[in-house]
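Prompt: I keep going back and forth on a fold encoding question. Comparing notes only helps if you start from a blank page. Show me how you would write down a chain together with its backbone fold. Please set it down just below, with no commentary around it:
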Amino acid sequence: MHDIRFIRENPAAFDAGLKKRNLPPLSAELLEVDKRRRAAISESEAAQAKRKALSRQIGIAKGKGEPAEALMAEVASLEESLKKGEAEAATLDAELTHRLEVLPNLPFDDVPDGTDETGNVEIRRVGSQRNFGFTPKDHVVLGEATGEMDFAAAGKMSGARFVVLKKHLARLERAIAQFMLDLHTSEEGGYTEVNPPLLVHDNAVYGVGQLPKFAEDMFHTDNGFWLIPTAEVPLTNLVNDTLLDEKELPLRFTAWTPCFRSEAGSAGKDTRGMIRQHQFPKVELVSIITPEQSDAEHQRMTARAEEVLKRLGLPYRTVVLCGGDMGFGSRKTFDIEVWLPGQGAYREISSCSNMGDFQARRMNARYRPKEGKGTRFVHTLNGSGLAVGRTLIAVLENYQNEDGSVTIPEALRPYMGGLTAIPAPAAK
């Protein structure tokens, strides 16, 4: 949520931020609504003050036995005017809130310009792509050949964009998630593991910026719950309407949860395989931090997500997203893209975003600084650490062998009971 005071004081900067988002300037029309709203509020406050003064005069007149009918009539007329003014102020306040809550966050100045993913800038590339002595298969061919990745069975009960994993692949998915959680909750990682609700109310999804703009991207129950699109929602909402002390910060949370997305705007995209599904597991990272530390925390979070790929021996690249490709609430985003030899392409496996105080304003999350008076809004950050299903895909495709077997990365073998490879289909 944007601060209207910032827009009043910095209209040019606000419009420049919108321009990075490829949006037209809006400060003038927002400030016009704000001007009318403040005028209505001032008129209501003046009417209230006059009513109080008249009421005191009525009391004095009655105490002296003097007539007060004229004063009482004036108060009655003020009541009608006051109600009208309060209603107008409330209407304008609602209009301003609606206009502000559907506007995306303003990018930081160092975010590159661009309208779509072609404007993203690669900042590093880590690991070497494997030189296969054969044509590598994609995860669908590998998984279906084993009989342990079953899209047909999932389709019968749930439709498209679902999968059933069995035996070795089911265990491998669990192993990947457990490995990630152990890494992030280690002393080096510093995250606190949380097992949060998967169903939340409107205020929770509003607080992180999913409502009202992205309602169609989520699943909604008929009794008022939303299925979480990512654990960012419940983890960030742990500080909803909370006043913290600065000494409590930073707060770092991680969770392994299923996530649910309708993929309403993804018709025809990634319809084959596990890349884009309605239900998928993910390990999420969330940080609650002071404004002064949020940039360093963003770098730290991204490094923790990259560490997963390094330990699994998976080649990847990290890019900074341009203004036109960033998520709604982000001020700056680093995408980590893993190499998938079966597709011959890098694909996103994590997005680490600094949201500034955008979410904190929506959920009224504040802290008391160690020095100085008053309170300040916290900064919130979130990222995938990592998308578990896409990590499974990356392991299958990068560690495949010509006979269809898949070597288990060393980091995952303790979680697989010491298993060193998923057997080739012919060996089953």
Summary: The first strand starts at residue 121 and ends at 126. Residues 27-64 form the longest helix (38 residues). Residues 152 and 163 are 8 Å apart (CA to CA). The chain has twelve helices and 17 strands.
